Amino acid sequence: MSEEQQFENEKEMNLVGHLSELRNRLIVTAVVFITLFVIGFIYVESIYYFFTKDLDFTLKITGLTDTVSVYITLAGLVAIIGTLPLLCLQIWLFIRPGLTKTEQRASLLYIPAIFLLFIGGLVFGYIIFVNLIIPFLLSLNTGMFDEIFTYDRYFKLLFRITIPFALLFEIPILSMFLTSLGILTPEFMRKTRKYAYLILVIVGAIITPPDFVLQIVVAIPLIVLYEISIYLSGIVYRKKIKKHQEFMENNEV
């Protein structure tokens, strides 16, 4: 067997090994997801009460299968939130062999940060939804209509508001990660600040009702998040430059 064939065989074996490891990690994540889904299914009444205890109206269902939809939706939400840190950990364990010791320690800190920011976004979106959006929508009806609040429409609107916030709250982590890869720089983020602000205002307008004050209230925290992202990107960038300079100095010696 030639050296080239041997190299190709080793390369193929490594690929198969990586795919097998990835499959095993996905299986572990799927098992945890299913377990949490079952737990959420069992305690769905308590979860439902948590989301509806502050409402001044009663949610109704319009079909026999709506009850099943309630169970699946709420149990799925619990499973997704609970599985997120494990999924991040499994991804980190998969890519860890290709990282240096310093990169391993730094990237490991991303896992709790991703989870906490995701939860923070959900909580912020829920507060906005309950305290600002619902009162605004209810105020539009001045007695012209009889209101029927269904579970389906309520939770669709709730998730339409909260999920985008949960994703947008990941901007600081995303900016740090892209900076560490050399794809993004704090200087670029500063130069494009006005465009980023415009995009965030548009996003705030899309996920909230057409009320100018409400849209501004939503956009301000997103803009603050962007500024925090610039600051964190600057920290990562300075460390990256410092390491590069130390590496060059050591090589010169």
TrEMBL record:
Xref: PROSITE patterns: TATC (PS01218)
GO annotation terms (biological process): intracellular protein transmembrane transport; protein transport by the Tat complex
Signal peptide segment: none
Recorded GO MF terms: proton motive force dependent protein transmembrane transporter activity
InterPro entries listed in its UniProt record: Sec-indep_translocase_CS, TatC
CC annotations in GO: TAT protein transport complex
Subcellular location per the Swiss-Prot or TrEMBL entry: Cell membrane; Membrane
Positions of transmembrane segments: 26-51, 71-95, 107-137, 157-183, 195-212, 218-237
Keyword Transport included in the entry's annotation: yes
Presence of the UniProt keyword Transport in the record: yes
Keywords: Cell membrane, Membrane, Protein transport, Translocation, Transmembrane, Transmembrane helix, Transport
Pfam families, sorted: TatC (PF00902)
Membrane topology: Multi-pass membrane protein
Subunit structure, interactors included: Forms a complex with TatA.
Family: Belongs to the TatC family.
Role of this protein: Part of the twin-arginine translocation (Tat) system that transports large folded proteins containing a characteristic twin-arginine motif in their signal peptide across membranes.
This protein's name: Sec-independent protein translocase protein TatC
Species of origin: Virgibacillus salinus
Species lineage: Bacteria, Bacillati, Bacillota, Bacilli, Bacillales
Gene name per UniProt: tatC
